[in-house]
Amino acid sequence: PWAHFKMAPPDPIIGLNEAYNSDDFPDKVNVGVGAYRCDQGMPFVLPVVMEAEKAIIAEEMDHEYSGIAGCPDFVNLALKFVYGDDCAALQEGRIAGVQTLSGTGGLRVFGETLATFGHKHIYVPDPTWGNHIPIFKNAGLEVRKYRYYDNDSCSLDFSNLIDDMRAMPEGSCILLHACAHNPTGMDPTVDQWKEISNVAMEKNLLPFFDSAYQGFASGDARKDAAAVRMFVEDGHNIAVVQSFSKNFGLYGQRIGALSVVAADPEEAKRVLSQLKVHIRPSYSNPPRHGARIVTKILSDPEKTNDFVHQCMGMAKRIDGMRYELRQALEDLGSGRSWDHVTSQIGMFAYSGLTKDQVVALREKHHIYCTLDGRISMAGVTSNNVEYIARAIHDVTGG
Ligand code: PMP
Question: Which residues form the signal peptide (predicted)?
Fold first, then answer.
């Protein structure tokens, strides 16, 4: 029955790992997938996560199913983490929240929910994280783009962003990256967020925040949630997807949350019931381990403090590598400006390399990044930064 199945192309991001793994060049570099590496190039488990795991094992917990909406303690803590303890909507009990299969799972559940309730399309920034497009398509939505980034000036294309928002049909859902926009590393300023919020209000748009890097953008989790909090204060009934993959380093544990701000507690209950209707036939209920880890940490002020410092440590290492990469390119006498490498934030450098240059980087220098020229700064280390700079210098023609 499978004879007519054609070979599907490898995933544009995850497929890079496969290509990297089968390359036997000793100095090969993987700067494709956005997964943090320590300066020795190894995966990093936050010490506070290790402690939490030990405590969980010592408690000899059972492995019963969680509820459809996941672990309530985790959900409450996740919501406080993004909305803030003092968020009025949270205190009033009008935010519906569920645990999700990390950010990806939350995006899909909300996409499906939107489609069920009459949304035909969703707007995403151009460019955006590659997986946003198939996630929302598979959820049954037409994916439309709004202008976000100006390639020539390597900066936010703000006036076109606003023009595109004004042209959106009333009631449209607009996906916004809460911080550390992937792939461009370019976020709106506080004033620009305010204007986005105002236009969204005028046009009655539904802002949907994807928060995959809280703590990674500025090193300060509170600051990285500023846009989300501003929109709630401005009176938007937003939706938010949170991922704990990057900030807690829990990639493979698939831990995240989806929340929806409603008009009142009764509406929040109805929304929650509909989210559960989508989850139950999809994966029934989410896994427990990641939720337990995050709960252990965020329910304890001392552990939370340790987390903040360790997350900041990752953000700082990445930032240091931005400066080293830029400096190395300048020292090589590159004729181009590499200022954007240090002005961008978060996990990625949106390098401006063309597709051909990316292919040359891969074929000639065994350096793997996505075809849009996005380089995961989390994979750049003291050992490989010079090598990467030389290779970039070579493929960009010096
Ligand atoms: N949104 C954005 C913008 C991302 O960059 C990522 C991870 N690359 C995700 C969502 C989802 O990741 P995960 O499913 O691991 O939480």
Answer: none
